[in-house]
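FAQ: What does a ligand-bound record look like?

Like this one, built around nicotinamide-adenine-dinucleotide:
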Amino acid sequence: MGLLTGKRALIMGLANDNSIAWGISKAFHAEGAELCFTYVNEAIEKRVRPLAASLGCDFVIPCNVDSDADIDQMAASIKERWGTFDILIHAIGYAKKEELNGEYLNVTREGFQIAMNTSVYSLTAVVKATRSLLNSGGSVLTLTYHGSQQVAQNYNVMGVAKAALEASVRYLASDLGPSNIRVNAISAGPIRTLAASGIAGFKDLLKSFAGVAPLRRNVTQDDVGNTALFLCSHLASATTGEIIYVDAGFRTVSITIDS
Ligand code: NAD
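The answer part, i.e. the structure of the complex:
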C-alpha cells in the first residue's frame, strides 16, 4: 500500500517533463495517488496529455487561473468525476519577462498586477472554488522561492509576489485548519524549467548556487516531489502554514570565501 493510496490529487502547473509539477506527479503516482491535471492553453495541453497518459491518467482539463469562469468550470469537472478530492498542488507562477531583469523599481503597474494576479491570487481563488470538495485530512501545496525573503538579482516582482504567496499560505492555513485541511509551501532552489528561463542570468545563478549550497549541488524536480509527497501525506499531519525549504541548504549560508 502506497502513502497516497486511495487519495485523489489535482495537479495545476504541469507544462512539460522539466516542470516541478512533473516531479511531484511522479512521486504521487508511485505512492498510489489518482491524478487530475489542468492546462492553461492548447499548446500546453499537447504536452500535458501524453505525460498524464504515461501515468495512466486521462483526467486532463483546462484552467487558466486568470479566469474565475475557468476555475469554476474546473471545480465543476472535479465534482462531476470525483465528487471530492484530497490534494491540491498549485505549481503556477507568471511574470512578464521584461520584469525579471535589471532594477526592481522599474516594475510597471501592469507588470505588478499580472504577477500578483496569476502567481498569488490564483492560489486563493482555486482554494475558494474547491474548498467544499476537499476532504478532511486533505492538503494544499504551493511553490515559492527564497527571493521572497532576500533580494535575488533579477527576480524582482516575483520576489514580492512570492512574499505575498507565502503570507497567503498562512492565512489559508488558518481558514482551512478547522476543517482539518493543511496548507503549506515548498521553497525550492533554482531548477531549470520553462518559467525559470524567463529570469535573466538564470544559468549563472544555477552555477553559483551549487558552489555555495552546503550539499554542493542543485536541487531536482524529484527532490521537490519527494518533499511534496511527505507534506501531502499523513506523515505531515500536524504541519500547516509552513514554508519548507528544498534548497540543498542554500538559505542557511551567509558569506562564502573563495579558497
Ligand atoms: P513551469 O514553467 O514548468 O510551470 C509553470 C506553470 O505555470 C506552467 O505549467 C504554466 O502553464 C502555468 N501557468 C502560467 N500562467 C498560468 C495561468 N494563467 N493559468 C494556469 N496556469 C498558468 O515552471 P516551474 O519552475 O515548474 O514552476 C512551478 C512553480 O514553481 C512556480 O510557482 C514557480 O515560481 C515555482 N518555483 C520555481 C523554481 C525554479 O527555479 N524553477 C524555484 C522555486 C519556485
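Follow-up question: can I read anything off the structure? Yes, for example: Residues 144 and 187 are 5 Å apart (CA to CA).
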